[in-house]
Design brief:
Strand content: 15-25%
Number of strands: 11
Order of helices and strands: HEHEHEHEHEEEEEHEEH
Distance between the termini: 56 Å
CATH topology: Rossmann fold
Structural class: alpha/beta
Helix content: 25-40%
Largest sheet: 9 strands, mixed
CATH superfamily: Class I glutamine amidotransferase (GATase) domain
Amino acid sequence: MISYLNRMTKALMCAGLIATGAGCQQPGQAQAVEEAETVYDTVRPDITKWMQQPAILVFSKTNGWRHNEGIAGADKFFVELSRERGYGIFTTVNAAVFNAEDLARFEVIVFNNTTGDALSPEQEQAFQTWLEAGGSWIGLHGSGDNSHADWEWYSQVVIGPTFIGHPLTPHFNTVRVETLNADHPIMANAPQVWEHDEEWYFFDSRPSEYGLLPLAGIHEPDFNPEGADIENLANWAMGDTPAEHPVIWVGCPGEGRSFYSALGHSDLAYDVEVYRQILNDAFDWVLKTSDPDGAGCPTVS
């Protein structure tokens, strides 16, 4: 009971309902939330037998930071995409859907800002088996933060670089995004350079170091230094060129395909025409509708 009251008091403090000057976790800091123990979902969701096929699973469970606006925007985008493509769709925060029988009903799985230790070891293995056997995965923004460290295969093979922070002052920055691989089917319809307003992630390394293929990167010099958190920007800096700071990349784990984008903190990202086109083309690529021979997969040296 005392532990519960302590957690409620802290929540009220952080919401500004109790005056205080300390004790609240801010965006851009450690992503994990403090819990006494991790409780995994065990009761499988009721997926109607009439769900249209093929189908998309959009998963947005969070045991860390919850990007409410971004989750809502991505859910809406994939509902629209499913309608346009003639796909069924199932959105859930119930991790018990990650079992062989249920996953077999989906052609594409989207991690929609999923954070924290969301899956049990058995559920993690079910997803790994599904993806490496030829599955198609799309990961958005928070799905690549640093709160997944307990899942080594996911953090090392699927995501690769480790998130280390993002600016807070200002929180959002409009910077130039540059296409790094114009020949890739995902970027074929994207401009060479465009501007995007985003909560930009910084990473400790680059995806190529993990055998992943960068598709787009940002111009770090575009961050406005006026009033910015200069110390952290300097500590996090990855490099002045877009090739040194990738934000979109792909992989081909086993027989599957993966696409990760650090964009998507806000619902507004999913209204941007350029980004909508990239996500549509990513959908085709992970499904092998485009590039069936895998020319766009990273080259293993």
